């Protein structure tokens, strides 16, 4: 879809985010849906995504509000939705609710939040709603491209500064440090601790001298015990419990 004539794209700063390994990328171009109520910003995203290396990105649709994004996602089944949180003058629950509905209807569709909001509570709410990634609208073009490729591959991606925001939220809401999460085995806690540092399944397996299959089994068990469905949500729980870094 060609960019709109005369539109001015978003400005971008410097820096790269944190990728948490996941599954495998889609075959062929990444099918993406843009959800943002500013045509100029969507035009800027189109320009950035046009430079994504092979297999590239195919913009299959655009929406200016949460309800429209939900409807288009159901119709088009994109690999990825780039989601703003505040659209059409509404509060930020518009994008959060849309994220929740899209991921519930199609778990294979990754949602990458691209928002001006940098408050820890908003980031956590978006990830809890099912978003796999979160970058700020001031992010560098390279960071956005990295986030798009990571989230479309089933990975989690936290933009520059976003992980620090989650740590800030955990510090503010945790009255005293906790050494772990009740109910998790020692090995599950080890896996969760390494997961919170951004390591993928293979790296965790090498660190703990386990097979990747065993690590995946531990992840499935700890996800069930924590009541989470994806890695970003598990990372939030790990940081709240003080399970950060290696022993």
UniProtKB/TrEMBL annotation:
Domain Response regulatory: 31-152
Keyword tRNA-binding: no
Keywords: DNA-binding, Phosphoprotein, Transcription, Transcription regulation
Modified residues (4-aspartylphosphate): 84
Every HTH luxR-type domain range: 177-242
Xref: Pfam families: GerE, Response_reg
Keyword Transcription regulation among UniProt keywords: yes
Protein name in UniProt: Response regulator transcription factor
Species for this entry: Yinghuangia aomiensis
């Amino acid at each position: 879809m060609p960019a709109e004539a005369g539109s001015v794209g978003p400005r971008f700063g410097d820096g790269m985010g944190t990728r948490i390994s996941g599954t495998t990328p889609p075959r062929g171009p990444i099918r993406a849906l843009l959800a943002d109520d500013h045509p100029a910003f969507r035009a800027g995203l189109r320009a950035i995504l046009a430079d994504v290396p092979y297999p590239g990105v195919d913009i299959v649709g655009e929406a200016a509000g949460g309800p429209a994004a939900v409807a288009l996602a159901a119709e088009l089944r994109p690999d990825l939705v780039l989601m703003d949180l505040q659209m059409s003058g509404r509060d930020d629950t518009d994008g959060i609710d849309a994220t929740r509905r899209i991921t519930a209807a199609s778990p294979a569709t990754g949602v990458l939040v691209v928002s001006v909001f940098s408050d820890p509570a908003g980031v956590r709410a978006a990830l809890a709603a099912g978003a796999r990634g979160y970058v700020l609208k001031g992010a560098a073009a390279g960071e956005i491209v990295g986030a798009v490729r990571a989230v479309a591959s089933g990975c989690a991606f936290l933009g520059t500064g976003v992980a620090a925001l989650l740590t800030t939220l955990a510090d503010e809401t945790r009255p005293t440090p906790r050494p772990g999460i009740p109910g998790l085995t020692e090995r599950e806690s080890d896996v969760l601790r390494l997961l919170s540092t951004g390591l993928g399944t293979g790296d965790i397996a090498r660190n703990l001298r386990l097979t990747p299959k065993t690590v995946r089994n531990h992840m499935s068990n700890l996800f069930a015990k924590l009541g989470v469905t994806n890695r970003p949500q598990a990372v939030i729980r790990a940081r709240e419990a003080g399970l950060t870094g290696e022993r």
